[in-house]
Amino acid sequence: MKPIAALATLAGLALAMTLAGFSLADDDEHHGRNGYKRPKRLAVPSGAPLVWKEECAACHMLYTPGLLPADAWREQMRTLGDHYGSNASLDPAQERVILDFLVRASAANRLPMEPSPTAGEPPRISQTRWFERKHDEVSEAKFAREAVGGRFNCVACHRDAEKGDFDEDRVKIPR
Ligand code: HEC
Ligand code: HEC
Questions:
Q1: Closest ligand to 123 CA?
Q2: pLDDT tens, 126-140?
Q3: How far from 14 is each of 5, 22, 26, 42, 167, CA to CA, in Å?
Q4: Which member of 63, 79, 149, 170 has the greatest number of CB atoms within 10 A?
Q5: What is the pTM of this model?
Q6: Which of 62, 64, 83, 157 should be mutated for ligand 1, with most atoms under 8 A from CB?
Q7: Residue 160 CA: which ligand is closest?
Q8: Of all atoms in ligand 1, which is nearest to the CA of residue 90?
Q9: Is it the case that residue 31 has pLDDT exceeding 50?
């Protein structure tokens, strides 16, 4: 696509999304004039509870709260007993602390909650339109590489993903 055509497509998309009731500006103005830098909003806020850092990184990388809207985190925390086929439930007091933190720390994410395409699963970060847009140049074969492990494993390609750094200048897809 020629740059001009691409821009026109983008503008059309932005307009459609605005009409649909939410704003792309929040998300996609990464290099925009308003100076908005998504990585800042993705950074882990200070005062993140230890129980979140420990329990939610026991089986996979730690996903920073800004990666999902609050409703998606509510759904995550409501279904920990059947968490993508694993039992990730904690005691209710710990779950409460984690939920409160995730909801508070994701307030800037105003994207709609999207269900996982796999029935019965909680929402995923890696199966959203936002994710697809950010990875339009990454083939399924690359996500499937053994050294990557799958789309969910952001940290394989974004070394500082757990700090909320997804800058494309620092991406490296392992062989
Ligand atoms: C017992 C292991 C286990 C624990 C503990 C656990 N998870 Fe998971 N989580 C999984 C598995 C398995 C997947 C699916 C990975 C895959 O796609 O193969 C997953 C996936 C996810 C995803 C979706 C990733 C994507 O594809 O977008 C999120 C978000 C998530 N977990 C959040 C959490 C949070 C929050 C906690 C802490 C409350 C937590 N997990 C604790 C096992 C666990
Ligand atoms: C196979 C490697 C790979 C995995 C796994 C991966 N990414 Fe990416 N990501 C990339 C590449 C390559 C780009 C830039 C390419 C493009 O423009 O399509 C990118 C771009 C991005 C961007 C845009 C960065 C910018 O500067 O605008 C974000 C945000 C992002 N990824 C988040 C994630 C999240 C969140 C996950 C995990 C749920 C993830 N990525 C998993 C390779 C990966």
A1: 1
A2: 999 999 999 999 999
A3: 14, 9, 11, 21, 22
A4: 63
A5: 0.85
A6: 83
A7: 2
A8: 38
A9: no
